[in-house]
Amino acid sequence: FISLHCNAHRDRSCNGVEVYFLSTAKTTDERAVEALENSVVFKYEGGAEAVQRYDDLSFILMDMAQTEQLRESSELAYKLLANLLSLTDMKNRGVRQANLYVLRVSYMPAVLVELGFISNKTEEKRLRDAKFQEKLVLALAEGIKSFKLKYDQVR
pLDDT tens digit string along 99-109? Predict the structure, then answer.
């Protein structure tokens, strides 16, 4: 599961690409992204009822299943980030961890990719460019292919 996003920040100089996988947020920045992304679920995907689906006993069961996928999610995140960096000249904001609702419900390797900052004029312009979009898609496709080939060999 790959959730694609464009980042935003009050500081319009923020730029770069980052990839999240499900885990406890460790830094202030990770917690801020976690709160913002999770607020979208509350606001646009059913409010308290949607959040409740994520937070009850089902969370415990999902957590147990997700733990099995944690290592694979981390590996996928690193492969995607490496490919994005190799095919673009974007700033490396790293692989990060957060308890994001959108990643909690996946019983498979799952990541959230922030493809750049739409609040940054330069990155916004690049994100609108069809050729740059093709680079992003190629980078993601190559990362997925690399990840899949590794696990096809293992199994």
Answer: 887 887 777 89
pTM of structure = 0.76
Cα distances (angstroms) measured from residue 47 to each of 4, 38, 101, 119 = 22, 11, 13, 26
What is the rounded (10 degree) CA torsion for 134, 45, 106, 8? 40
CB atoms closer than 10 angstroms to residue 151: 12
What are the strands of the beta sheet with 111-117, ordered from one edge? 2-7, 111-117, 17-22, 92-98
Tokens found for residue 53: 């689906």
Pairing mode of beta strands 111-117, 17-22: antiparallel
* Strand ranges in 15-132 using DSSP code E only, listed in sequence order: 17-22, 92-98, 111-117
Radius of gyration of the chain (CA): 16
